[in-house]
User: What shape does this take?
Amino acid sequence: DAFGYPFMLKARKGGYDGKGNAVVKSADGVREAFQSLGAAACYAEKWCDYEREVAVMVVRGRGGETRVYPVVEFTAKNSICHTTMCPASCSAAVQDKVREVAAMAITSLRGSPAGIFGVELFVSRDGSVLLNEVAPRPHNSGHYTMDGCSCDQFESHVRAVMGLPLPSDTNLNVGCSMMINVVADVNEPTAEAPAREFSKLCSLPGASGHWYGKESASKGRKMAHVNVCAPSVGALWERLQPAKDLVGIGMPVVGPLVGIIMGSDSDLPCMKECCDVLRELGVPYECTVVSAHRTPDRMMAYA
Assistant: This one.
């Protein structure tokens, strides 16, 4: 009653890929939700009307020192991670807050654990950041580091647990990187369908494929992932086009960042070089005529 409806009921242990979660929409649904989680120890969470889901990999050394990787934004299909996009599309201020909350969560863990942690968070519509969950291991949210960072999440994990120096540089070494999970849609004794999807994704420019070597497929089983790197979001969008049916909801939203407007198309020869430079840099732009004298209504609508 304190949270109202709907709220989320979660199992205290064993949750992953959406398993261990149940939405309670009314008082009549409490018992059913509890039974669906195996009638095990649970806790309730207030419903979060978030704008986007983000994640951060945090590595903690034996001495308590930490390093924080960039913020990624991710999408899910059937409660399983589908894509991650780095960098995230939220503002720099929000990303700083996300990294701060993630680091605080890991430094607050009892027992001084060492290793890599995947920290998932919600960004609310008002810009506030809420901690969702912590995975004490290498994580889907960090797979992009295998091709986008100088020290990936797996090496960072080994360094931390072995007491070796943590990486001095955890920044993204490319303009942007998207990870696409290859997840089996059906049960089959072979992995032919996921292999075809994997092959198509690997054919994209800037793609690096990571096949897990599983011989059979079952629905919801992660079979592989592919990282696609590019110098800019615009360039990444172009590279993903041949596989947009596979990427789907994970496709980056690319709107014009720059508007080139002029009072008449006779001004276009003067602005052409500006268009050329933006295209070369991979900056999404639009070029149009907006006349304050002839089309004031269009000018107001554009503004």
In short: Residues 50-250 form a domain with the D-amino Acid Aminotransferase; Chain A, domain 1 fold (CATH 3.30.470.20). The mean pLDDT is 89.
